## 1
Amino acid sequence: MLTNKTVILGVTGSVAAYKAAELASKLTQAGAKVEVVMTEPAAKFVTPLTFRSITGRAVVTDMFGPTSQHSIEHIALGGAADVVVIAPATASIIAKMAVGIADDMVSLTVLATKAPVIVAPAMDVDMFANPITQENLARLKARGFIIVDPGYGRMASGKVGWGRLADTEKIMAAIEGALGGSADLAGKRLVVTAGGTREYIDPVRYIGNPSSGKMGYALAEAAWDRGAKVTLITASSLPEPEGITVVPVETAAQMKRAVTKATAKADALLMAAAVADYQPKTTAKSKIKKASPNLSLELVRTPDILGEVKGGFLRVGFAAESDNLVANAKKKLVKKKLDLIVANDITDKKSGFGVDTNKVTLIDKKGKAESLPLMSKREVADKILDRVVGLLKR
């Protein structure tokens, strides 16, 4: 998809500038022609030589310098681009782009291009939350810019919150989506579930599991990149992905209602959520006081969403197992009448809950199993969707 595509990578003066080197490397490995343009502050964090070593191409920092392989570089770069990516994007560059100021090579390139522009903000918590920054981002989004939302975590300042540069995988996915992807799911409606449900004991306590929802989100984003209309029903607190209809839920019962409604016109349901198997028979209306040393709960089964929701859509289930992986997954496949099941060993630290990688086994309706190597969850998502595309064609 990226082979021979020209990607303009704009790097601005954020402490996260060093992460742009990894992005440049990934793009180059994927076959893209990466032209790096840098602001003067960016060059104080990472040297142009770093990017030149990675891409094999000259880095442009001067609006009128003779370093680029393009003629009249201040307009030619923008014209040559298949996609422009600003990562990291500071509050300053976002403000410039929002009002059309072009006084450095990055902002000028954006103003001169007709290619899709992807903006990946990275800045301190308070700067990102500032209403001016949010207004500028909203303005860019309204003009068709693709915003890759930042992540949550600890900043260089020591503060914790939203503002960390998005993961390289997420930015790569946005680039692939902007370039059109394979579009092999164009016109299809997919429903994806994600996260672990919460079954409440009282207003402050619940039965749950450590599912982060990352696999479901990777599926939803990959499906959207491939042209599908996606509804993501989620019990996760991850940021909402762009372009996708998101339905937040908490309990298994809420998820069942949402799935029933969403699958009425769906082509496929991918049930990646970790739905609790049991719920308290009754939920206390007030917080249960710690009056005695022991507390007994009567639990009942939660709704079997895959087994109970009716419709002629394709059904893909997930089996998180701690032993007898394939045998247990096959039982679930048959019992729930699935078209495909994705099984993973939750005892493996690299493919369990909360991590960015997964190692799964795909089992089809005939019981044929295919074990995949350890991959990123986005790569696993595309492997699953390859199967979905084939099944839908049948």
## 2
Amino acid sequence: MGNDRGPGAGSGLPGGTDRQRYLSEVCGLLWPSPATVTLGGTVPDRTGTRGQRRGQEREFILLLGSSRPRLLIPAAAAPGAAAVRGYGEPGSAGARLGARALSLAMASGIGGAVLRRRIRVSAPAGADTIESFLRAALGADVLVSLYLGPARANRKPVLQLLSPQGQPAGFAKIGTSPLTRALVQAERDALIRLGRAGLSGVTVPEVLHFGEWRDLKVLVLSALPVRQRRRPVNGAALAAAMNSVAGVGGLRREPLATGSYWRRLTGRLAAADRSAERDTLLGALDTLSARAGDAQLVLGSWHGDWTPWNMASTSDGLLVWDWERFTDGVPLGFDALHYRLQKDVVPGRREPRAAAAGCIQGAPLALGGFGLGAAEARITATLYLADLATRYLADRQAQAGALLGAPGAWLIPAITDQVRRL
């Protein structure tokens, strides 16, 4: 990656589980040699300010311990409390309550005394680290907090940025692989465009900085006001917001089998690695084209990953983030279908294959706010599942260890079953 040491080399960090290995890799990228990253002992720095005093040394708390690391937050009380609160705010009501309790414990100093697994970063003066890069890019000192997400092809470091006093300063997304660098670039381009589009009922982050550091792409975004008063998600308001996004590039109608969307979808799928899943999906799409090729589709834009956890419903409208999959020229209603499916396949809620089949069966109701008839809605849902399966195959999600990364286990059966009914 352009660093003069391998990810995590010599860091002394644990490397057993996937999250441990990822933590070691990311720390090696963010604080490359001559900086050193070490897993500290169980005796905390009780002042919580050593990193701020010395300037070149940072201490972090590793939440959920070194065996199941999920969150790396500054050890100092104010920014540590703000980091926990910031990661909890976009979640469910229960997650927000838990985060607020831990945030209060951090602010009081109790959390810092009890949470004893530490990571220490030491860097000589003038060392080129992510913090020195961000400081130069933003013209202000920032502390970073890191969320360690689950395995998937598009996993990337996402840093919450905080002032030394704990004020939100934004978020930084870092593209570390060909796929994630392309996604970071795509999100920057999408947000610039969306910022000029005059969306109705939707607020998106602002781009504060975009550039390269040590062969990595770095996108710095403003922090959305997720602490605003929440309100229940209103179905009509959600559909209106999705319609507003759909209309960013204008709406147009075209036939399924001879249109631009069909060519892009089948082209992406044909370019994916050859596999039984890919060939089965190509066969299903051939049958769909033969049996419903004359169907007319309304095309527009979509967010690409609109889920309950990528938005917040507030008294001032919807705050929506994670726009790296924003795309033009897809069938109207894709966002609504994705929102419903992803909500259904949360672990413990619904079996994924049944959820995929339900996405097609429930499409007429789910797409009622988009003016689609029942037949058009089911075709749209079939295409949505095919688009998502193609994404997973092209990104090699199964090989990356993503939980639902194998579309042959749940998405493709729903598609083939529906095509047989046409």
